[in-house]
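re the bet — no i am not wrong, look at it urself. input seq straight from the record:
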Amino acid sequence: MTIAEVSRACSIPVDTLRYYERIGLLPPVNRSKSGFRDYTESDRQWVSFIKCMRAAGIPVEALIDYVALFQQGDTTREARRQLLVEQREALRGRVEELQKTLDYLTEKIRRYDEWNPAAEERLLSGGGEG
């Protein structure tokens, strides 16, 4: 696959793919005889993995570490697993914070939905409610 095809398939700009490869976020991509990047299905899966992890807020540095460990082979399997476990725990914390924010907003919206303009008008005019 060409870089343009992977870009379209994964909805990632070509420049971003080049950047990912340059900083070690994406393992080196093979080149054709003419020097163009020749992505394999495995490369495309790496791009999808990176896109998913970045969308979840996983830091670039953690992913670079993961890729470097992966390239070292099976002896780093436990280190890679531990890195993913740590990132999962950090993500769970962010999800909990997001859930609290979502609950807060839901309550605020509920109050707007239950707002009674007639009662509000009586309060403002001094009539009270009882």
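see?? The chain is about 70% helix and 0% strand. told u. also The mean pLDDT is 91. so pay up
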